[in-house]
Fold this sequence. Notes:
Elements (H helix, E strand, L loop, with lengths): L2 H20 L2 H13 L14 H16 L1 H26 L2 H30 L3 E3 L6 H34 L7 H10 L13 H8 L6 H31 L1 H5 L11 E3 L2 H18 L5 E4 L2 E4 H20 L2 H6 L5 H25 L7 H5 L10 H12 L4 H11 L4 H5 L3 H13 L9 H12 L7 H24 L2
Antiparallel strand pairs: 1-2, 3-4
Amino acid sequence: MCGKASRAAGLxxxxxxxxxxxxxxxxxxxxxxxxxxxxxxxxxxxGVVWAIPFVGILLSIALFPLLAPxxxxxxxxxxxxxxxxxxxxxxxxxxDGTLVVHELAHMGLLDYVPFLILLGALFTxxxxxxxxxxxxxxxxxxxxxxxxxAALASIVGTTGASMVLIRPxxxxxxxxxxxxxxxxxxxxxxxxxxxxxxxxxxxPLFLGYLRGVDFFWTTAHMFAETALCVFLLLGLxxxxxxxxxxxxxxxxxxxxxxPDTGKIGIRGKVNILLLLVVVGGVLLSGSWRPGISxxxxxxxxxxxxxxxxxxxxxxxxxxLAVTPKGVRESNGFNWEPILEVAKLFAAIxxxxxxxxxxxxxxxxxxxxxxxxxxxxxxxxxxxxxxxWMTGLLSSFLDNAPTYLVFFNLAGGDAQHLxxxxxxxxxxxxxxxxxxxxxxxxxxxxxxxxxxxxxxxGIKMPxxxxxxxxxxxxxxxxxAIVTVxxxxx
Length: 488
């Protein structure tokens, strides 16, 4: 990316930080006082027009790479900045300045910054793990690799598993000209559905854990749903991959460009320990409650959350310091995927502020018709609708705040949701995690996997092209899940 484009793009990812760092002390004091007097942005007072910037960034991500790929490659940061400002400027003109800063600080400090720190740490550490040996992308290997990746996703998270395994699977299939289906199923299984069994797997489940859902509740109550999805997807992948491998002459006649090496091994093993440090840091923030917090621009930052972020940053810096340079070079490691995610998701997190507020307003907000679809006239939940509404919104909104919206809509009491409303909580959790696979922006690892695959020379589907895969495969799968688990 050219220098000017890079500087403009950097403005977007730093926008929230600049607001926080350079806000005058008097303004900070005003925001703190206002935060104690008001609950924040009232979604019931907002019209649908405030969703335009959010829809704009989504359509830009969807259409520009397809219609103007050269422009998008060089200027996507500027486009993202434009949509972020399209919300911030009118919002600042029509609302009190303290509320503007408070809302941006809330989204920045509690959502975007921890989100980026976690992804950045996992991306950096995983990039220092290199699996040696020339793996051959035969159907038996591929299906086994995807199964292992799906299991690993619940242990080190979908981001960690995706970043560790995507490069080896790309090298294993680099001799196959038609290998897009391998990456697509990798996103389905490793970057999303596999992370359903623990709070470490995906951010929505971690938020539930922080709000009182037992650590192993997801393991016990989502295992059957996850196992069914993984089993059916692996079976379908096996049929597709075996047919292409056996009957496509391109596969049989293409020379494998990766030379054969010795036995399979791992370089950069210290990073495996650092991944465990990241896992420990995440667990710490959910289990340690020192009762100490700091008020920053009206936002309560718990000591446990600050400690988690510091641990993750230190783990990432340690990885950069101790990993031999040659390991990252062998991995083809570069910073572009995480920078792309940082810039685009900064705009998504900013423009999503009014959308989440309107959803939280429930029956009082502009999206009341959507909210009314998840409950019967007597107020009892419709689990199938919770599954689909949480899932469909998670396909295009960030799935973590979407999970919280429906978690609170169902009552917000973790003990009650784990008890009489266990099926409702399972529907919300499955919808948030499973349907993150429906689009490239449904879950951050999707975008990073796509970017890494493209940098390796794979012509990945466009935004809508990918959705053709997800609609053709995942939507029927989720219909089966609905009938089996949530319809009655």
